What does this fold into?
Amino acid sequence: MKIKTEVLIIGGGATGAGILRDLALRGIPSVLIEKGDFTSGASGRNHGLFHSGGRYAVSDPEAARECIAENRILRKIAPHFIEETDGLFVSLPEDGLDFRDKFLRACEEVGIQTSLLTRDEALGLEPELNPHLLSAVKVPDGAIDPFALVLENAEDAEGHGAKILLHTEITSLILDGDEVKGAGVKDLQQGEEYTIEAPYIVNATGAWANEILKLAGLRIGMALSKGSMLITNQRLNHSVINRCRPPADGDIVVPNHSVSILGTTSIRLEEVENFEVTPHEVSFLIQETSKMIPAIQEARFIRAYAGIRPLFQSEEKGDDRAISRGFALIDHGKRDGIQNLITITGGKLMAHRLMAEKTSNLICEKMGMDVPCSTHLKPLPGASRPIGPKERLKQFTTNRGEILCDCELVQRKEVEAFLGGEKLKDFQDILHRTRLAKGTCQGGFCVYRLFGVLHDLRMAEGDSNKILRGFLEERWKGIRPILWGTALKEEELIESIYKGIFNL
It folds into this structure.
């Protein structure tokens, strides 16, 4: 089999999906391939923070300007994925007020709106805050659903003619002299190998950028920085809570749906695969974030997870937090002599649309086309029917059906609607496209119900117990670091269910 297109995009994260949509809206044929499912990398392993840019106002003003500009655009084109919580940068007694004053000046310089709050005003908004705080600064932070954001970008692109190949891995780059002509790929589920002819290739694989570039004998300066996070079983804060000090480990708590997410760390790694959250990181995150929200000390945790930040660096720096969170767009024709190969890496989820715009502009320039970007003007398809937590609860109570996931109120008909319109390639694809298994029980009580639905619909192919084992093994990676107290009791219950009922 051979596929022909104009642009081949490698990577199914926010940047890759954003480029796919941008090109599709410009009428440029493109194909996206991803070796897993969408958001398998950093785009699915982050805080879900809707940045104001405040976090970088002092240390990285250019990244802060990008964040606040994209913050305003995303509020217009993707309001249905955003919870406008606002954010507080809190000053504790040990922090003093020197950094707060510097922070206020920096925010003003980069265009981030701020409000200075007294201690009592801050506690009125967030009763669980440390009562000894000195003051707080309010900024336009929020929470965002990265999974839904990426999926809707991809679906809109597909609706405009783009093609998507998931669970498809690149095996080689096809070069004709100093020019790329396409790539060899492999369908990881069917085992079929074929080629995709494309005169332009975009490497949007984030932390895996050098894994693709080595197929052409190339390499760029990258720092792989692991950020670990913890999820509580309930929402402890209404607003995003940041420590008002220079960015450091354990200084932010993000509310997201019905939980709070504690973070984060910055630990240099050499390998992009096979990393885990350590008990030391768990203890440290609890210790540091509880200085802002004391209730964290007694909170129950349901999961620990980590993502890899792809930090582009032109020179080695000892501290990963000193590396800019801005993005790098690299034309390998100019840099390395390999024509029409482009790498886009670094950056943040907040900048994915801007990264896509800059990449697509470069492609248009190379193609000799003058087609302007429109992604900053055209809302995503679901923007006209936003469904936030309140609307979802109202919809659930007025139109209640059989429930598969009690934690996230996922109804059977929602899952069946998805299965009716999609080709099921992998079990995890269902979990990525619904909120099933993302709640307090982390799939312990709903996944076997999902298998019942799959059997009813005759979609459960192969050994169901093998698939269940795979899910439980993956879940265990995030459960193991936080096993104490109630979490340990729940894990013993779930173990007895799967051993006793399913004979695993």
Remarks:
- The chain has a mean pLDDT of 91.
- The chain has three domains: 2-42+147-221+325-367, 82-143+223-311, 387-500.
- The two ends are 40 Å apart (CA to CA).
- Residues 424 and 430 are 8 Å apart (CA to CA).
